[in-house]
Design goal:
The complex is a heterodimer of chains A (319) and B (165).
Chain A (H helix, E strand, L loop, with lengths): L16 H8 L1 H4 L2 E5 H4 L9 E7 L9 E5 L2 E9 L2 H8 L4 E4 L2 E4 L9 H7 L3 E2 L9 H31 L5 H18 L10 H7 L4 H8 L4 H10 L7 H4 E5 L4 E5 L2 E5 L5 E3 L6 E2 H6 L3 H9 L3 E5 L1 H11 L1
Chain B lengths: L8 H31 L3 H22 L9 H9 L2 H8 L9 H19 L15 H17 L13
The chains are: A alpha+beta (319), B mainly alpha (165).
Chain lengths: 319, 165
Amino acid sequence: MTAGRDLGQLERVGLTRAELLAAGGSLLDHGVPYLVGSLAAGLGNAGSDVDVHLFVEDLAEPTPPYLFFVRDVPVDVEQYPARYPGTLLAAVPPGRIRLPVGTLATGIGGRTGPRATGARWMTAVGLQDGEPLLGQDNRAVVAAYLCRCALDDLLRRWCLAALAGSAGFAPVSVWAGAGRALIELAVCGAGQWASGGKWRPVLARRAGLPPGAVRLAFGAGSDEDLATAARGLGLPALDPLELVRLRTVADLHPVRLGAARWLLTPTRRLVQDGEEMDGPAARVVRNRRSGSAVELLRAGALTLEPDDEAVDRILASAR
Amino acid sequence: MTGGGGQDAAWVAGPGAAAAWIYAVEVQSALADVDAAAAADDPETCVESCTVVLTKLAYCAAVHSGRYAHPPPELAMLADLWLDPDLDAELRALPLPVQASMAQAEQARALVHHRAGRLAELLPIEMPVLRSSAGFFPSVRVAGDVESLRRRLDLPPLDWMSWGM
């Protein structure tokens, strides 16, 4: 074990680097351990877990988390193949566009990078040497990718809310859920990294986001609220119904019950076998089929996918 | 018919067990987040954690009622939960997390603990808290007990991990 300064991030849970490495013992010896998660991001409190990612040569696949305790502090260790950070970087196309909300990746059709782990690696710091996992240039690449993923989430949730609204029933919660995706995008764009939605209010303040827009996002109850908050947070005008497509999921199985025709979903729900819904969400609204679309989304027979090229065009025109 | 005459074994070994698992893995850890934020004098994180608890309770209750024979994919789950008027009413009763006061946070915290307690009473299986030194191993044993019952009922094994949020 190398000697060196302690990790301040562990102070919140009352541990030292030496204690953690000693308690981990042989579990942490056969790879390179990094502190990730909320503590690494400078958040967390006395109740936080210590999250460790261990990078191991010749490991085929990530392992499920292994939990142990140092006194009463839970330590969660996940093992990753040493090549994984490189794999993530290779999955991110190099195009980037800088907007008031932040820098977003472009040209990103068919992205396959591991997103949740990517976010955790942004603040990862070595337990042995205290050095970051990703160098500055690579962090910029991953950051832009994560922001683009956050935009995708916002578009999906905003589209869901808009479809529900046009079907005549959109409770506040569906708008507030989209509002949270908007906050997530804005804090990513401002370079604040933490996994776990509960930190968003704190991160929004740390990022110095305009308080009025932040309040409006968390309390959004309508399309107008969301659009106003989005503008206030530096996004270009977006029409989620035009930018998001409905897609029928694979593995729907036709079922006949007498004269009725149904479809069996992968999660074992039966939905009415009706007309084709695939295509831009806006078309479903024009055809007054929003209600059916929402029901199929709830049943998992349909899913929502941003149109990457259309989104790229909007972002380019906003610069 | 009214209730009584025992409980349906397949329900206990299926939706009941899955709900108990979700309560232990998701709801209790979310409650711990609420409490930790309150202890750290962080009302904003406390209130937002309360939102998370209510959403997870709604999912747990839906599984408990047998709504999902199989874990739903994420977008479908969110759509289902957010479009539920009961959860909507509960979420609207919480204050906004931003600029929340400690008094508001404590009130929200009491509310979610109360709601969680009411759902806990309906669970057919007691699963010890997973995250404490004492509670880790007994939870694995309870899962084994459920699998024994499922085998007796000619049911395939439960894919426990897939029920998480």
